[in-house]
Structures are given as structure tokens and as C-alpha cells.
Specification:
globular; mainly alpha; 21 helices
Length: about 500
């Protein structure tokens, strides 16, 4: 720790001389044409890990879903900074090149997860395929949030969660990627950086107010999913980018260099506090809680640009940065993996007549999530980002030449791809309209309705009403003397109770 503070003191002494270099280095282009902010992978790691924890331990980590809001702030800041940097350096924003970079970043892993997950669900349990056609459509067109709003699904209802339910946030971000560059070119570049910042903050306030006003305790998913009601994090990130574009003087102040690391630590600590105390059923979450999480995320992001310090160095520690670099894949893989592994465990334990321990699948889920995201990043995402779609396709085709050293792995890969694609197509075609659990509940409700009709007062049911229709040795209390308490499980058991 002492070494870190000594380094900070040296950095402060030379801060004015380094500020210009720090501003130029704020966004470093990579080989794929994207950018990098020092320490940003650490914040990504925090965001994806709390989301993963929320889905694995929803009771112990009730507010883990705010990790998505951390992602929104990061995306708003990063994308806007990249666009402004391109405009400042090249005099214009090339929309085609920007969208191509986004496609190379998002599509390869997404397509892999969709086909692999549908194929695995087809093999493990077809109940996981209920509603899969609309889910695949939403995933591949980045419209999951609005499709799920239209069908009335509930994100926070465990029984109704779909295979690709978490893709709603990808839809919100992709819609931002499509329309935000157009707005920057058409309107925002006409104003000074200060005015742009104010407008972005006004849009953030408008989105937050819309969420607060439209919030319905019985239908929270609408405001949580809506692009209109959940864009404040993105716009707060945009406002930060505009503010940095307008002035770099903040980086030259010594007092700022002193408070930067502590502001970052405090912001992250308060985000984790929110993760522990807020929940999806509280009105505070939608009327200030998510906005507060976004503001704290912005404070953490603000602490990153400039001379490296203890906070940025910690965020760039290899284990943390490793998770952050693969955060997109981890986010994509974790939820389908949870559903499929849990379904497989349930099938295995049921065959053996053993109740499934609640914790038993968690270690395997975590291992598979990280292995899948690592493999996807290594062999799918990075090659496409580095070479592009066309060059990557050429490399794949070259691998099928008999004399190529990759010939055998390529053949094995082709067989695996053919299997997963075929299984996924079959899964989409045979997907049931309702799960077995839902069918059992409906059958139970029909049985109860029929029995209630038989027991209704009337001449035909007089014997049943008094109980004289039963032989003496089999006589049981009449229905009005028996009470059962339960939920859908009780409905599903109804046929066996009559």
C-alpha cells in the first residue's frame, strides 16, 4: 500500500506535464477498432458478477440486477466517447464502420449462445423451449424487451423466466447503438459540449421520471424493460462523455488527483451496499433506487480517466480484468446455463428418487459459465473482432484443406456445429406451447371445476351433499368440511385429491 501511495505522489508531481498525454490516451484504439479505458474492465467485472450472484442466490443478493445499470452507464460513456473521438480526429462519424464494429463485437457470441442453448434444452428438457420462437426472434433482432412487454411476461417471476430472458438489456443497448449515433450527427453536434451535457442529463431525468410515474407494483416489468423508461443510465454515461469532451481541465487539478481513487472506492462500495439492500418488489427501486445506482456507477467511471492511481490499478489486476474482458460472454451464457443445468440435475435426481439439493448445481453452473465464456472469447469473439467476418470466413474455409494443420479440428468442429444447428432447428419446431407443470395445473383446475359442479346444490346432487351416497364403511367428510391451502402445486395435485 505504501508503494502505491508513493507512486501516486510521483504522479501528482508530474500531473500537469502528463495531462495532455492522459487525455490522448483516454481512448486507445485496439486492433479491432474499438477503444479501451484504463480500469473499465474492473467495473465490468463488478457488474457481471453481481448479476450472476443475483441469479444464483436471489434471496441473499436481492439487488444484484443493478449490475445491468452499471453496464448501461459504461456503454453510454464508452460509445459516445468513441463517436466523439472519431469525429474530432477524422472530421466525421462513419456510421457504417461504427455499426460494423458493434456487429463484430455482439453477434458472434450471441448467435453461438442462441443455437447452443436451444440445442441443449432440446436434449435436456423441452419444457425449457416454451415460447422459444419469440425468444429467438427477440434475441436475433435485439427486440427482446418489447416482445416480452407485449406478451406480458414477468422478469422477476421465477416460474415464468424464459431461456433468453436476460437478453432484454442487450436489446436496450443495441437500440441505443442504432439510434444514438444518428441523433449525435443530426442534433447534438450543433451544440456546445456544455449544452450537450445538459440535454443528455435532461433526457436522463425524463426517463427516470417516466419510470417513476408509470411504475405499477403489479407490472414492474414494463418500466424495467422499457427503452423509454430505463435509458437514464445510458444518458448519464452520455453526459459524462460530453463533459469530458468539453474540458480536460479537471485532470490537471491536484485536488482531483487526490480524491479520484477514493471516489472510485466509495462509489463501488455503495453500489455493493445497494446490491445487498434493495429488491425487485420495492417501489424505491423504480422511484430512485436504479437512478442512484446509475449515479454511483457514473462516479466510479469518472474516477478512471487520467493518471493511473491505486483505484485504476486495482481495477486492472489480472483476475478482475480477465472477468471484465469476458463480461459480455459471461452475461450471455450464465442464465441459459443455470436453467439447463438445473433441469438436467432435476432429471437425474428424479430418476434416482432423490430430492435435488438447492446448492448442488451451483459449482457446475459457475464452472461452465466461465469455461463457455472463455472458449467463446478465445475462438469466436476475438478472431472476428481482429479479422472481421469476411477474413474469418476465409480462414475457416482454409482450415478444411487436407494438408492444413487445422484440418482434423475443423472437421470435428463442423460435425459439432451441424449437430447443434440441427438440434436447435428441431427444438424450435417441436417447442411445446405449455410446460408440463402448466399442463398439470390446468388439469387440476379442470378437475376442481368438475367436482365443484357435481357438488353444487340441486336435486341431482342431494345425496352427495348430505353424504348418504357413500357406503357407510367409505364415508368421508363432505367437501365443505375440507380446506386446502397452496398455490399452483395444489392445483396440479387436485386430480389425485378427488
Amino acid at each position: 500500500m505504501a508503494t502505491e501511495f508513493s507512486q501516486i505522489a510521483e504522479d501528482l508531481a508530474s500531473a500537469p506535464a502528463k495531462v495532455d498525454a492522459a487525455k490522448r490516451d483516454l481512448m486507445r484504439p485496439s486492433e479491432a477498432g474499438a477503444g479501451r479505458i484504463h480500469g473499465l474492465d474492473g467495473l465490468r467485472a463488478v457488474a457481471v458478477l453481481v448479476v450472476l450472484a443475483f441469479h444464483l442466490w436471489p434471496i441473499k443478493v436481492p439487488g444484484g440486477f443493478i449490475g445491468v445499470d452499471v453496464f448501461f452507464v459504461i456503454s453510454g460513456f464508452l460509445i459516445t466517447t468513441l463517436l466523439l473521438k472519431e469525429r474530432n480526429e477524422k472530421g466525421k462519424i462513419r456510421l457504417g464502420a461504427f455499426w460494423n464494429r458493434r456487429a463484430k463485437r455482439l453477434l458472434p457470441a450471441l448467435i453461438l449462445v442462441v443455437f447452443t442453448s436451444v440445442a441443449a434444452a432440446t436434449v435436456v428438457n423441452t419444457d425449457l423451449l416454451v415460447g422459444i420462437r419469440r425468444q429467438v426472434l427477440g434475441a436475433l433482432t435485439f427486440s427482446t424487451n418489447w416482445i416480452e412487454i407485449w406478451v406480458g411476461s414477468d422478469y422477476f417471476n421465477d416460474a415464468g423466466r424464459a431461456l433468453f430472458v436476460t437478453f432484454w438489456s442487450l436489446a436496450v443497448e443495441e437500440q441505443f447503438y442504432v439510434f444514438w449515433p444518428l441523433l449525435i450527427i443530426a442534433a447534438f453536434l450543433k451544440f456546445s459540449p456544455a449544452v450537450r451535457t445538459i440535454i443528455a442529463l435532461a433526457l436522463a431525468v425524463g426517463s427516470a421520471l417516466l419510470m417513476a410515474l408509470l411504475f405499477d407494483p403489479n407490472a414492474a416489468t414494463r418500466v424495467y424493460y422499457g427503452t423509454d423508461t430505463h435509458s437514464f443510465g445510458l444518458m448519464i454515461g452520455v453526459a459524462l462523455a460530453f463533459a469530458f469532451d468539453g474540458s480536460g481541465k479537471l485532470l490537471t487539478y491536484r485536488w482531483w488527483q487526490l480524491i479520484r481513487p477514493w471516489m472510485g472506492f466509495v462509489a463501488v462500495a455503495e453500489i455493493l451496499l445497494l446490491v445487498a439492500i434493495i429488491d425487485s418488489e420495492s417501489a424505491f427501486t423504480y422511484r430512485g433506487g436504479l437512478v442512484l445506482a446509475s449515479a454511483l456507477s457514473a462516479a466510479a467511471v469518472v474516477a478512471l480517466p487520467g493518471v493511473p492511481n491505486i483505484f485504476t490499478r486495482l481495477c486492472e489486476r489480472r483476475p478482475i480484468a480477465w472477468v471484465g474482458e469476458r463480461s459480455y460472454g459471461i452475461y450471455l451464457w450464465h442464465w441459459p446455463t443455470i436453467l439447463i443445468v438445473n433441469a438436467a440435475f432435476e432429471a437425474i435426481f428424479t430418476v434416482r428418487g432423490i430430492a435435488v439439493p438447492a446448492w448442488s448445481s451451483i459449482p457446475l453452473i459457475i464452472i461452465l459459465t466461465f469455461v463457455f465464456s472463455w472458449a467463446s472469447f478465445r475462438w469466436i469473439e476475438k478472431p472476428v473482432q481482429k479479422h472481421g467476418f469476411g477474413k474469418t470466413w476465409d480462414l475457416i474455409c482454409d482450415a478444411f484443406r487436407p494438408k492444413d494443420k487445422m484440418f482434423v479440428p475443423a472437421i470435428i468442429g463442423l460435425v459439432m456445429v451441424a449437430f447443434f444447428v440441427s438440434a436447435a432447428i428441431i427444438g424450435v419446431l417441436i417447442a411445446p406451447a405449455k410446460s408440463q407443470a402448466q399442463l398439470a395445473v390446468e388439469e387440476g383446475e379442470r378437475a376442481m371445476a368438475e367436482q365443484n359442479a357435481k357438488n353444487a346444490p340441486g336435486p341431482a346432487n342431494k345425496g352427495s351433499e348430505t353424504g348418504t351416497a357413500w357406503p357407510k364403511e367409505q364415508r368421508v367428510p363432505s367437501g365443505d368440511r375440507i380446506v386446502g391451502f397452496g398455490d399452483s402445486v395444489m392445483s396440479g395435485a387436485a386430480p389425485a385429491m378427488y
